[in-house]
């Protein structure tokens, strides 16, 4: 075992490693390249391809995460070695090459085993004005980011952690790329909600809903719906034929907003468990303040003043309690999970 050393002896070895790393990134894109851009029927081929990859067991996920983490330390060791300019022995080179080979394998396995999660999340954004295959690709890039950022020491399930990065990558890409005029991420979410509400009402009413009906279902004004429609300048018919035989419609590919995908359901349940665990580290009052302020468990978020009335204290006192609680959660890297769950509701 070699201590506090790193990677390769000369620049040619380093270039070879960089090439290998690039090949790993390209391997992930291999899945998207299998989907022909000429027809949506090939989405079935993609699903079949990713469906052949087994899901990871918790112990397998842990072992792979450890391999990826070992590479991070090796990179730091390499920088130290470069400053000393000491050549590596063959034994040292073999040792570190083994570390990086294992890390490449681990990243590939984590990515491949979670591509179904990406597809599950991507379906929620299919009618967003961005090509579905591009949405999947952006989600895959978010997954790759999650693999690099994941810290197994925090005790989080990887799929729960990855869901946040996947969703963030997709929503940002939609906001940045789907329209010439940039639409804020929160407005993209609002547009998606409106489109899903319209679809639900079409199925229920057997006709196109009026703006007033959509507004009532979303608990907003009809003027707000009209404003959203003006921003969403690329409406698509849910009856638009797709596929080589044109025997399916665009609506068939849109996830039912009333039915949670099994994989997403499992991920959400895991997220709830992790949030409960994080909240258990707070005092009772801090926990209640966070629950009320962020509207956890399908409640409406409350203002500082409203929470103050609940506890019969000033809004400034609630702000202080909230600030202290958030600081605790941030120190555990758990605050982003709570923000993410609040956005999901």
TrEMBL record:
The keyword DNA-binding applies. Residues 134-147, 303-329 form the RNA polymerase sigma-70 domain. It comes from the Bacteria. Keywords: Cytoplasm, DNA-binding, Sigma factor, Transcription, Transcription regulation. Sigma factors are initiation factors that promote the attachment of RNA polymerase to specific initiation sites and are then released. Belongs to the sigma-70 factor family. This is RNA polymerase sigma factor. The gene is rpoD.
